[in-house]
Amino acid sequence: MSVLKDAAHIYKESLGVLIIALGGGVFAGAVLGGEGMLEGFDSYPGLLLLVPAFLATRGNVYGALGARISSGLHQGLVEPRFEWNRRLRNAVVASFINGIFISVFIGFLAWGMMQILVSLGVRDDSAALVELVGITFIAGTLTSVVLIFGLLLLIFAGYRYGLDPDNLVGPIVTTLGDIFGVLFLFFAVVTVGVIL
Asked: pLDDT tens for residues 24-49?
C-alpha cells in the first residue's frame, strides 16, 4: 500500500469517530457552562482550577490502557471479548488504580494551589480540602468504571468489524473522558453538597 492509500484508509476509519468526538466535546462544554456547574464553581473555589487537569488525565490514563489493549489485539495476546485473562486484568486494574489515584492527587493539588493564591491575596477563599478531594474521588471513580468498560466495548466491537483499534483509541478516550468526566464532576459537586 502506498503512503497516500494508507493515509486515506486511516482517515476513512477515523472520520466517523472524530465527528462523534467533536459532538461529545461540544456537549461536555455545554454541561460545563450550564447553570448548575457555574454554581458549583462559585460554591467550591478551586473547582475550576482542577477541571482541565482532571479531564486531561482521563485521556492520559485511559489512552495508555487503550494502547495496551490495541497492541495486545494486534499481537494476538488479547482476544476481542471480555475474558478475565492475566494481560487484560492487569491492564484494567492498573488503569483503575491510576485513574483514582491521579484524581485524588488533582484534588490535593488544586487545594494547595488555592492556598497559595489566597496567601498571595489573589483569591479571597478556597474550598475545603475534603470538598475538592471528595469531588475528584467520586468523579474519578465513576469515570474510571465507565471509561474502562466503554473503551473495551468500543475497541472490541471495532476490531471485530475490521477497524484498526489504533485509529479508535484516541477519539474514544477523548470523547468518553470529556462527556463522562464533566457529567460525573457535576454529579460529584451535587453529592458533596448534599453530604457535606
From this structure: 888 888 888 888 888 999 999 999 99
In order of 17, 58, 81, 123, 143, the CA distances from 100 in angstroms are: 27, 10, 25, 28, 9
User: What CATH number should be reported for the domain holding residue 66?
Assistant: 1.10.357.20
The DSSP letter of residue 103 is: H
- Give the domain extent around 158: 3-195
The number of domains in the chain is 1
Rounded CA-CA distance 86/92 in Å is 10
Residue position matching grid coordinates 462544554:
29
The pTM score is 0.90
List b or e across 12-30, with b for residues whose CB sees 16 or more CB atoms inside 10 angstroms: ebbeebbeebeebeeebee
